[in-house]
Design goal:
Family: Belongs to the mTERF family.
Protein name: Transcription termination factor MTERF4, chloroplastic
Subcellular location: Plastid, Chloroplast
Strand content: under 5%
Distance between the termini: 92 Å
Pfam families: mTERF (PF02536)
Largest sheet: none
Oligomer: single chain
Shape: elongated
InterPro entries: MTERF, MTERF_sf
Length: 506
Protein backbone atom coordinates (compact mmCIF):
# COMPACT_ATOMS: atom_id res chain seq x y z
CA UNK A 1 0.00 0.00 0.00
CA UNK A 2 2.80 2.39 0.93
CA UNK A 3 4.78 1.54 -2.18
CA UNK A 4 1.70 2.15 -4.32
CA UNK A 5 1.14 5.58 -2.79
CA UNK A 6 4.81 6.50 -3.24
CA UNK A 7 4.67 5.39 -6.85
CA UNK A 8 1.54 7.57 -7.42
CA UNK A 9 3.23 10.66 -6.03
CA UNK A 10 6.25 10.15 -8.27
CA UNK A 11 4.00 9.90 -11.28
CA UNK A 12 2.20 13.15 -10.34
CA UNK A 13 5.55 14.89 -9.88
CA UNK A 14 6.68 13.81 -13.30
CA UNK A 15 3.39 14.93 -14.86
CA UNK A 16 3.71 18.40 -13.36
CA UNK A 17 7.35 18.73 -14.40
CA UNK A 18 6.65 17.83 -18.02
CA UNK A 19 3.24 19.56 -18.44
CA UNK A 20 3.05 22.78 -20.52
CA UNK A 21 3.60 26.03 -18.67
CA UNK A 22 0.78 28.54 -18.08
CA UNK A 23 0.96 32.18 -17.20
CA UNK A 24 0.79 32.95 -13.48
CA UNK A 25 -2.64 32.74 -11.89
CA UNK A 26 -4.17 31.13 -14.96
CA UNK A 27 -5.28 27.57 -15.13
CA UNK A 28 -6.64 25.42 -17.95
CA UNK A 29 -10.30 24.72 -17.69
CA UNK A 30 -9.89 21.02 -18.30
CA UNK A 31 -7.04 18.80 -19.44
CA UNK A 32 -9.23 15.92 -20.42
CA UNK A 33 -10.04 17.49 -23.81
CA UNK A 34 -6.42 18.27 -24.68
CA UNK A 35 -4.02 15.97 -26.52
CA UNK A 36 -1.86 14.25 -23.96
CA UNK A 37 1.86 14.57 -24.38
CA UNK A 38 3.38 11.43 -25.90
CA UNK A 39 6.21 11.59 -23.35
CA UNK A 40 3.83 11.10 -20.41
CA UNK A 41 3.99 7.58 -18.97
CA UNK A 42 0.89 5.51 -18.39
CA UNK A 43 -0.73 5.97 -14.99
CA UNK A 44 -1.28 2.58 -13.42
CA UNK A 45 -3.82 3.72 -10.79
CA UNK A 46 -5.68 6.73 -12.28
CA UNK A 47 -8.48 6.71 -9.67
CA UNK A 48 -5.96 7.08 -6.87
CA UNK A 49 -4.26 9.98 -8.62
CA UNK A 50 -7.63 11.69 -9.17
CA UNK A 51 -8.44 11.30 -5.50
CA UNK A 52 -5.17 12.93 -4.44
CA UNK A 53 -5.56 15.78 -6.91
CA UNK A 54 -9.12 16.56 -5.83
CA UNK A 55 -8.15 16.49 -2.17
CA UNK A 56 -5.28 18.85 -2.87
CA UNK A 57 -7.48 21.31 -4.80
CA UNK A 58 -10.51 21.51 -2.57
CA UNK A 59 -8.71 21.74 0.78
CA UNK A 60 -5.40 23.46 0.10
CA UNK A 61 -5.12 24.77 3.66
CA UNK A 62 -4.24 21.29 4.90
CA UNK A 63 -1.10 21.24 2.78
CA UNK A 64 -0.22 24.93 2.57
CA UNK A 65 1.52 27.03 5.23
CA UNK A 66 -0.62 29.51 7.20
CA UNK A 67 0.23 32.73 5.34
CA UNK A 68 -1.75 35.20 3.27
CA UNK A 69 -3.81 32.88 1.19
CA UNK A 70 -4.27 35.46 -1.57
CA UNK A 71 -0.58 35.16 -2.35
CA UNK A 72 -0.25 31.40 -2.17
CA UNK A 73 -3.56 30.34 -3.64
CA UNK A 74 -4.09 30.56 -7.32
CA UNK A 75 -7.19 31.81 -9.03
CA UNK A 76 -8.77 28.39 -9.23
CA UNK A 77 -8.27 27.71 -5.54
CA UNK A 78 -9.74 31.12 -4.72
CA UNK A 79 -12.81 30.44 -6.77
CA UNK A 80 -13.32 27.05 -5.17
CA UNK A 81 -12.94 28.53 -1.66
CA UNK A 82 -15.36 31.35 -2.50
CA UNK A 83 -17.96 28.90 -3.74
CA UNK A 84 -17.67 26.82 -0.58
CA UNK A 85 -17.95 29.90 1.69
CA UNK A 86 -20.86 31.35 -0.26
CA UNK A 87 -22.69 28.03 -0.01
CA UNK A 88 -22.17 28.14 3.75
CA UNK A 89 -23.50 31.70 3.98
CA UNK A 90 -26.50 30.84 1.82
CA UNK A 91 -27.28 27.94 4.12
CA UNK A 92 -27.65 30.54 6.93
CA UNK A 93 -29.96 32.69 4.83
CA UNK A 94 -27.34 35.35 4.03
CA UNK A 95 -27.59 36.90 0.57
CA UNK A 96 -24.17 36.86 -1.07
CA UNK A 97 -24.85 39.01 -4.14
CA UNK A 98 -22.96 42.01 -2.74
CA UNK A 99 -19.95 39.91 -1.76
CA UNK A 100 -18.73 39.39 -5.34
CA UNK A 101 -16.14 42.18 -5.12
CA UNK A 102 -15.29 41.46 -1.49
CA UNK A 103 -12.21 39.46 -0.58
CA UNK A 104 -13.33 36.58 1.57
CA UNK A 105 -11.28 34.39 3.90
CA UNK A 106 -9.83 31.10 2.67
CA UNK A 107 -11.77 28.75 4.93
CA UNK A 108 -15.29 28.21 6.13
CA UNK A 109 -13.99 28.11 9.70
CA UNK A 110 -12.77 31.72 9.52
CA UNK A 111 -16.06 32.90 8.05
CA UNK A 112 -18.02 30.94 10.65
CA UNK A 113 -16.02 32.69 13.36
CA UNK A 114 -16.96 36.09 11.92
CA UNK A 115 -20.64 35.25 11.61
CA UNK A 116 -20.85 33.85 15.13
CA UNK A 117 -18.99 36.86 16.56
CA UNK A 118 -21.37 39.29 14.84
CA UNK A 119 -24.42 37.37 15.99
CA UNK A 120 -23.16 37.31 19.58
CA UNK A 121 -23.39 41.10 19.47
CA UNK A 122 -27.13 40.74 18.96
CA UNK A 123 -27.31 41.13 15.19
CA UNK A 124 -29.48 38.83 13.11
CA UNK A 125 -29.25 37.44 9.60
CA UNK A 126 -31.54 40.24 8.45
CA UNK A 127 -29.14 42.80 9.93
CA UNK A 128 -26.24 41.18 8.08
CA UNK A 129 -28.23 41.23 4.85
CA UNK A 130 -28.79 44.96 5.35
CA UNK A 131 -25.02 45.46 5.25
CA UNK A 132 -23.30 42.23 4.15
CA UNK A 133 -19.97 44.02 3.73
CA UNK A 134 -19.43 43.59 7.47
CA UNK A 135 -18.51 39.98 6.65
CA UNK A 136 -15.30 41.32 5.12
CA UNK A 137 -14.10 42.56 8.51
CA UNK A 138 -11.55 40.45 10.36
CA UNK A 139 -12.44 39.55 13.93
CA UNK A 140 -8.96 40.31 15.24
CA UNK A 141 -8.01 43.21 12.96
CA UNK A 142 -11.33 45.04 12.75
CA UNK A 143 -14.11 43.88 15.05
CA UNK A 144 -12.30 43.49 18.36
CA UNK A 145 -10.23 46.75 18.15
CA UNK A 146 -13.20 48.89 17.03
CA UNK A 147 -15.71 47.48 19.51
CA UNK A 148 -13.17 47.66 22.31
CA UNK A 149 -12.56 51.33 21.57
CA UNK A 150 -16.27 52.11 21.42
CA UNK A 151 -16.76 50.50 24.81
CA UNK A 152 -13.82 52.44 26.16
CA UNK A 153 -15.28 55.82 25.15
CA UNK A 154 -18.61 55.17 26.83
CA UNK A 155 -20.88 52.92 24.78
CA UNK A 156 -22.18 50.14 26.99
CA UNK A 157 -21.30 46.61 25.95
CA UNK A 158 -24.98 45.67 25.91
CA UNK A 159 -25.61 48.40 23.31
CA UNK A 160 -22.72 47.63 20.98
CA UNK A 161 -24.95 45.46 18.82
CA UNK A 162 -27.50 48.25 18.47
CA UNK A 163 -24.73 50.69 17.60
CA UNK A 164 -23.30 48.40 14.91
CA UNK A 165 -26.79 47.79 13.54
CA UNK A 166 -27.35 51.55 13.19
CA UNK A 167 -23.90 52.29 11.79
CA UNK A 168 -22.16 49.10 10.53
CA UNK A 169 -19.62 51.15 8.55
CA UNK A 170 -17.77 51.76 11.81
CA UNK A 171 -16.39 48.21 11.61
CA UNK A 172 -14.21 49.24 8.65
CA UNK A 173 -12.77 52.29 10.44
CA UNK A 174 -9.28 52.64 11.83
CA UNK A 175 -9.25 53.43 15.52
CA UNK A 176 -6.11 55.55 15.37
CA UNK A 177 -6.60 57.28 12.01
CA UNK A 178 -10.38 57.82 11.91
CA UNK A 179 -12.20 57.25 15.23
CA UNK A 180 -9.84 58.75 17.80
CA UNK A 181 -9.50 62.15 16.02
CA UNK A 182 -13.30 62.57 15.90
CA UNK A 183 -13.60 61.86 19.62
CA UNK A 184 -10.80 64.29 20.33
CA UNK A 185 -12.61 66.92 18.29
CA UNK A 186 -15.85 66.39 20.24
CA UNK A 187 -14.00 66.82 23.50
CA UNK A 188 -12.52 70.02 22.06
CA UNK A 189 -16.07 71.30 21.56
CA UNK A 190 -16.65 70.89 25.31
CA UNK A 191 -18.70 67.72 25.05
CA UNK A 192 -18.33 66.09 28.45
CA UNK A 193 -16.46 62.81 28.52
CA UNK A 194 -19.40 60.97 30.09
CA UNK A 195 -21.68 62.29 27.31
CA UNK A 196 -19.61 60.97 24.39
CA UNK A 197 -21.33 57.59 24.39
CA UNK A 198 -24.76 59.24 24.54
CA UNK A 199 -23.90 61.51 21.59
CA UNK A 200 -22.63 58.60 19.49
CA UNK A 201 -25.70 56.49 20.21
CA UNK A 202 -27.91 59.34 19.00
CA UNK A 203 -25.86 60.14 15.92
CA UNK A 204 -23.30 57.40 15.15
CA UNK A 205 -22.65 58.78 11.66
CA UNK A 206 -20.60 61.51 13.31
CA UNK A 207 -17.70 59.04 13.43
CA UNK A 208 -17.46 59.24 9.63
CA UNK A 209 -17.15 63.03 9.45
CA UNK A 210 -14.13 64.85 8.14
CA UNK A 211 -12.88 67.19 10.85
CA UNK A 212 -12.17 70.02 8.43
CA UNK A 213 -15.51 69.65 6.65
CA UNK A 214 -19.15 70.20 7.61
CA UNK A 215 -18.64 69.79 11.35
CA UNK A 216 -16.16 72.64 11.73
CA UNK A 217 -18.06 75.03 9.42
CA UNK A 218 -21.35 74.49 11.28
CA UNK A 219 -19.75 75.34 14.60
CA UNK A 220 -17.92 78.35 13.19
CA UNK A 221 -21.12 79.80 11.71
CA UNK A 222 -23.13 79.40 14.91
CA UNK A 223 -20.41 81.13 16.89
CA UNK A 224 -20.37 83.94 14.32
CA UNK A 225 -24.07 84.75 14.91
CA UNK A 226 -23.61 84.97 18.67
CA UNK A 227 -23.78 81.45 20.08
CA UNK A 228 -21.46 81.19 23.08
CA UNK A 229 -18.60 78.79 22.26
CA UNK A 230 -18.97 77.26 25.73
CA UNK A 231 -22.53 76.28 24.84
CA UNK A 232 -21.54 74.33 21.72
CA UNK A 233 -20.80 71.24 23.83
CA UNK A 234 -24.25 71.15 25.47
CA UNK A 235 -25.80 71.81 22.06
CA UNK A 236 -23.98 68.83 20.58
CA UNK A 237 -25.11 66.66 23.48
CA UNK A 238 -28.71 67.74 23.02
CA UNK A 239 -28.86 67.70 19.20
CA UNK A 240 -25.65 66.43 17.54
CA UNK A 241 -27.27 66.32 14.10
CA UNK A 242 -26.48 69.98 13.42
CA UNK A 243 -22.82 69.01 13.07
CA UNK A 244 -23.75 67.26 9.81
CA UNK A 245 -25.82 70.13 8.41
CA UNK A 246 -24.49 72.30 5.63
CA UNK A 247 -24.35 75.96 6.52
CA UNK A 248 -25.21 77.31 3.10
CA UNK A 249 -28.23 75.12 2.40
CA UNK A 250 -29.70 74.42 5.86
CA UNK A 251 -28.51 76.50 8.81
CA UNK A 252 -28.00 79.96 7.30
CA UNK A 253 -31.32 80.10 5.37
CA UNK A 254 -33.23 79.23 8.56
CA UNK A 255 -31.36 81.84 10.61
CA UNK A 256 -31.84 84.53 7.94
CA UNK A 257 -35.58 83.82 7.75
CA UNK A 258 -36.10 84.03 11.51
CA UNK A 259 -34.11 87.27 11.64
CA UNK A 260 -36.30 88.66 8.84
CA UNK A 261 -39.35 88.10 11.07
CA UNK A 262 -37.90 90.51 13.63
CA UNK A 263 -35.97 88.16 15.92
CA UNK A 264 -32.68 89.80 16.96
CA UNK A 265 -29.67 87.56 16.51
CA UNK A 266 -28.91 87.80 20.21
CA UNK A 267 -32.30 86.33 21.07
CA UNK A 268 -32.02 83.74 18.30
CA UNK A 269 -28.61 82.60 19.50
CA UNK A 270 -29.95 82.18 23.06
CA UNK A 271 -32.82 80.12 21.64
CA UNK A 272 -30.41 77.87 19.77
CA UNK A 273 -28.22 77.41 22.83
CA UNK A 274 -31.18 76.06 24.81
CA UNK A 275 -33.04 74.32 21.99
CA UNK A 276 -30.57 73.29 19.32
CA UNK A 277 -33.16 71.00 17.73
CA UNK A 278 -34.72 74.10 16.14
CA UNK A 279 -31.94 73.80 13.56
CA UNK A 280 -33.53 70.56 12.41
CA UNK A 281 -36.83 72.18 11.38
CA UNK A 282 -37.27 72.17 7.61
CA UNK A 283 -37.55 75.75 6.41
CA UNK A 284 -39.78 75.25 3.38
CA UNK A 285 -41.79 72.27 4.59
CA UNK A 286 -42.40 73.29 8.21
CA UNK A 287 -41.22 76.74 9.35
CA UNK A 288 -42.61 78.95 6.60
CA UNK A 289 -46.02 77.18 6.49
CA UNK A 290 -46.31 77.53 10.28
CA UNK A 291 -45.58 81.24 10.15
CA UNK A 292 -48.23 81.65 7.45
CA UNK A 293 -50.60 79.64 9.63
CA UNK A 294 -50.10 82.00 12.58
CA UNK A 295 -50.87 84.97 10.36
CA UNK A 296 -53.96 83.29 8.93
CA UNK A 297 -55.36 82.77 12.44
CA UNK A 298 -55.06 86.44 13.28
CA UNK A 299 -51.65 86.70 14.93
CA UNK A 300 -50.24 90.09 13.99
CA UNK A 301 -47.05 90.21 11.96
CA UNK A 302 -45.34 92.48 14.47
CA UNK A 303 -46.03 89.88 17.19
CA UNK A 304 -44.45 86.93 15.35
CA UNK A 305 -41.00 87.51 16.84
CA UNK A 306 -42.41 87.62 20.37
CA UNK A 307 -44.47 84.46 19.77
CA UNK A 308 -41.46 82.52 18.47
CA UNK A 309 -39.19 83.84 21.23
CA UNK A 310 -41.64 82.70 23.91
CA UNK A 311 -42.30 79.28 22.39
CA UNK A 312 -39.65 78.35 19.79
CA UNK A 313 -41.11 74.88 19.24
CA UNK A 314 -44.17 76.43 17.63
CA UNK A 315 -42.40 76.70 14.27
CA UNK A 316 -41.89 72.94 14.18
CA UNK A 317 -45.32 71.69 15.31
CA UNK A 318 -48.17 70.40 13.10
CA UNK A 319 -49.60 73.84 13.74
CA UNK A 320 -52.64 74.12 11.50
CA UNK A 321 -54.40 71.12 13.04
CA UNK A 322 -53.53 72.21 16.59
CA UNK A 323 -54.67 75.79 16.11
CA UNK A 324 -57.92 74.74 14.46
CA UNK A 325 -58.72 72.43 17.35
CA UNK A 326 -57.82 74.94 20.08
CA UNK A 327 -59.61 77.83 18.41
CA UNK A 328 -62.81 75.79 18.15
CA UNK A 329 -62.45 74.70 21.78
CA UNK A 330 -61.93 78.27 23.03
CA UNK A 331 -64.94 79.48 21.10
CA UNK A 332 -67.21 76.64 22.20
CA UNK A 333 -66.25 76.17 25.86
CA UNK A 334 -64.67 79.45 26.90
CA UNK A 335 -66.73 81.81 24.70
CA UNK A 336 -63.53 83.37 23.34
CA UNK A 337 -63.98 84.54 19.76
CA UNK A 338 -61.30 84.01 17.04
CA UNK A 339 -59.90 87.50 17.52
CA UNK A 340 -59.59 86.93 21.24
CA UNK A 341 -57.91 83.60 20.56
CA UNK A 342 -55.32 85.38 18.39
CA UNK A 343 -54.57 87.75 21.28
CA UNK A 344 -54.22 84.75 23.59
CA UNK A 345 -51.75 83.19 21.15
CA UNK A 346 -49.69 86.38 21.09
CA UNK A 347 -49.45 86.52 24.88
CA UNK A 348 -49.07 82.81 25.59
CA UNK A 349 -48.36 80.69 22.49
CA UNK A 350 -47.79 77.64 24.71
CA UNK A 351 -51.59 77.46 24.92
CA UNK A 352 -51.52 75.62 21.60
CA UNK A 353 -50.02 72.53 23.27
CA UNK A 354 -52.00 72.68 26.51
CA UNK A 355 -54.43 69.83 27.18
CA UNK A 356 -58.04 70.92 26.94
CA UNK A 357 -58.96 69.19 30.21
CA UNK A 358 -56.27 71.22 31.97
CA UNK A 359 -57.65 74.43 30.46
CA UNK A 360 -61.18 73.68 31.61
CA UNK A 361 -60.42 73.22 35.31
CA UNK A 362 -59.48 76.83 36.21
CA UNK A 363 -62.25 78.14 33.95
CA UNK A 364 -64.83 75.98 35.71
CA UNK A 365 -63.49 77.21 39.06
CA UNK A 366 -64.02 80.84 38.06
CA UNK A 367 -67.49 80.10 36.72
CA UNK A 368 -68.30 78.33 39.99
CA UNK A 369 -67.47 81.51 41.92
CA UNK A 370 -70.34 83.29 40.22
CA UNK A 371 -68.41 85.09 37.49
CA UNK A 372 -70.33 85.39 34.20
CA UNK A 373 -68.91 83.46 31.23
CA UNK A 374 -68.33 86.73 29.36
CA UNK A 375 -66.18 88.06 32.21
CA UNK A 376 -64.24 84.81 32.41
CA UNK A 377 -63.58 85.02 28.67
CA UNK A 378 -62.24 88.58 29.13
CA UNK A 379 -60.03 87.40 31.97
CA UNK A 380 -58.57 84.59 29.81
CA UNK A 381 -57.87 86.93 26.91
CA UNK A 382 -56.22 89.47 29.21
CA UNK A 383 -54.22 86.89 31.19
CA UNK A 384 -53.98 83.53 29.35
CA UNK A 385 -51.75 82.18 32.13
CA UNK A 386 -54.95 81.60 34.11
CA UNK A 387 -55.77 78.44 32.17
CA UNK A 388 -52.45 76.86 33.15
CA UNK A 389 -52.79 77.42 36.91
CA UNK A 390 -53.50 74.75 39.51
CA UNK A 391 -56.99 75.03 40.94
CA UNK A 392 -55.90 74.51 44.58
CA UNK A 393 -53.57 77.50 44.27
CA UNK A 394 -56.37 79.59 42.80
CA UNK A 395 -58.68 78.55 45.67
CA UNK A 396 -56.28 79.79 48.33
CA UNK A 397 -55.75 83.11 46.56
CA UNK A 398 -59.48 83.54 45.98
CA UNK A 399 -60.45 82.85 49.61
CA UNK A 400 -57.85 85.33 50.84
CA UNK A 401 -59.22 87.88 48.38
CA UNK A 402 -62.79 87.39 49.63
CA UNK A 403 -62.23 86.86 53.36
CA UNK A 404 -59.24 89.11 54.14
CA UNK A 405 -59.45 91.77 51.47
CA UNK A 406 -63.22 91.82 51.16
CA UNK A 407 -63.07 93.23 47.65
CA UNK A 408 -65.64 92.90 44.85
CA UNK A 409 -65.23 90.27 42.13
CA UNK A 410 -65.03 92.99 39.51
CA UNK A 411 -61.48 93.74 40.63
CA UNK A 412 -60.50 90.19 39.65
CA UNK A 413 -62.08 90.71 36.24
CA UNK A 414 -60.06 93.89 35.81
CA UNK A 415 -56.83 92.34 37.12
CA UNK A 416 -56.91 88.56 36.57
CA UNK A 417 -53.11 88.48 36.95
CA UNK A 418 -53.84 88.43 40.70
CA UNK A 419 -54.04 84.62 40.55
CA UNK A 420 -50.57 84.32 39.03
CA UNK A 421 -48.80 85.84 42.06
CA UNK A 422 -47.67 83.80 45.06
CA UNK A 423 -50.04 84.19 47.99
CA UNK A 424 -47.42 83.65 50.69
CA UNK A 425 -44.45 85.49 49.22
CA UNK A 426 -46.13 88.48 47.54
CA UNK A 427 -49.86 88.97 48.08
CA UNK A 428 -50.05 88.57 51.87
CA UNK A 429 -46.85 90.48 52.82
CA UNK A 430 -47.62 93.44 50.57
CA UNK A 431 -51.27 93.58 51.58
CA UNK A 432 -50.30 93.59 55.27
CA UNK A 433 -47.84 96.42 54.66
CA UNK A 434 -50.60 98.44 53.03
CA UNK A 435 -52.98 97.70 55.91
CA UNK A 436 -50.43 98.89 58.46
CA UNK A 437 -50.05 102.18 56.60
CA UNK A 438 -53.77 102.53 56.04
CA UNK A 439 -53.41 102.62 52.28
CA UNK A 440 -56.06 101.19 49.98
CA UNK A 441 -55.05 100.73 46.37
CA UNK A 442 -55.97 98.54 43.44
CA UNK A 443 -54.54 95.06 42.98
CA UNK A 444 -52.54 96.23 40.01
CA UNK A 445 -50.86 99.03 41.98
CA UNK A 446 -49.34 96.93 44.74
CA UNK A 447 -48.79 93.64 42.93
CA UNK A 448 -47.60 94.51 39.42
CA UNK A 449 -44.19 95.87 40.39
CA UNK A 450 -40.83 94.75 41.71
CA UNK A 451 -39.99 94.72 45.43
CA UNK A 452 -37.84 97.81 45.00
CA UNK A 453 -40.60 99.69 43.19
CA UNK A 454 -43.11 98.65 45.85
CA UNK A 455 -40.87 100.10 48.58
CA UNK A 456 -40.51 103.30 46.60
CA UNK A 457 -44.28 103.54 46.28
CA UNK A 458 -44.76 103.04 50.01
CA UNK A 459 -42.22 105.76 50.80
CA UNK A 460 -43.70 108.21 48.28
CA UNK A 461 -45.83 111.16 49.31
CA UNK A 462 -48.32 110.53 46.53
CA UNK A 463 -50.08 107.62 44.91
CA UNK A 464 -48.48 106.85 41.58
CA UNK A 465 -51.14 106.72 38.84
CA UNK A 466 -51.91 103.31 37.44
CA UNK A 467 -50.78 102.47 33.97
CA UNK A 468 -51.02 99.52 31.65
CA UNK A 469 -48.42 96.80 31.80
CA UNK A 470 -45.35 96.63 29.55
CA UNK A 471 -45.99 96.44 25.82
CA UNK A 472 -43.63 95.53 23.02
CA UNK A 473 -43.81 96.49 19.37
CA UNK A 474 -41.20 95.22 16.93
CA UNK A 475 -39.18 98.10 15.58
CA UNK A 476 -40.17 100.42 18.40
CA UNK A 477 -39.28 101.13 22.01
CA UNK A 478 -40.35 99.01 24.94
CA UNK A 479 -42.61 101.30 26.93
CA UNK A 480 -42.81 100.71 30.66
CA UNK A 481 -45.27 102.20 33.15
CA UNK A 482 -43.72 104.90 35.31
CA UNK A 483 -40.88 105.40 32.89
CA UNK A 484 -40.02 108.69 34.55
CA UNK A 485 -38.65 106.85 37.58
CA UNK A 486 -36.91 104.02 35.79
CA UNK A 487 -33.34 103.69 36.98
CA UNK A 488 -30.43 104.71 34.79
CA UNK A 489 -29.40 101.08 34.35
CA UNK A 490 -32.80 100.20 32.92
CA UNK A 491 -32.69 103.15 30.52
CA UNK A 492 -29.36 102.01 29.14
CA UNK A 493 -30.58 98.56 28.26
CA UNK A 494 -31.03 97.92 24.57
CA UNK A 495 -34.30 96.82 23.01
CA UNK A 496 -32.85 93.36 22.41
CA UNK A 497 -31.93 92.92 26.07
CA UNK A 498 -35.36 94.03 27.24
CA UNK A 499 -37.05 91.70 24.76
CA UNK A 500 -34.92 88.86 26.03
CA UNK A 501 -35.69 89.58 29.69
CA UNK A 502 -39.40 90.13 29.30
CA UNK A 503 -40.55 87.83 26.50
CA UNK A 504 -38.13 84.93 26.18
CA UNK A 505 -39.21 81.99 28.30
CA UNK A 506 -36.60 79.33 27.65
Amino acid sequence: MASSLLRGRRIITKILSTSPKFPPNSYPVSQSNQNPSPQLPQIQNPSRVLQVCVFSTQFPEYEMPSVTWGVVQGRKEKLVSRVIICDYLKSLGIITDELESLELPSTVEVMRERVEFIMRLGLTVDDINEYPLMLGCSVRKNLIPVLGYLEKIGIQRSKLGEFVKNYPQVLHASVVVELAPVIKSLRGLDVEKEDIGYVLMKYPEILGFKLEGTMSTSVAYLVSIGVNPRDIGPMVTQYPYFLGMRVGTMIKPLVDYLVSLGLPKKILSRMLEKRAYILGYDLDETVKPNVECLLSFGVRKESLASVIAQYPQIIGLPLKAKMSSQQYFFNLKLKVDPEGFARVMEKMPQIISLNQNVILKPVEFLLGRGLPSGDVAKMVVKCPQLVALRVDRMKNSYYFFKSEMGRPLQELVEFPEYFTYSLESRIKPRYNRLQNKGIRTSLNWFLNCSDQRFEERLQGDYIEPERSGPSFCMGGKLELPGSEIVSDDEEEESDNEVLYKRTVSL
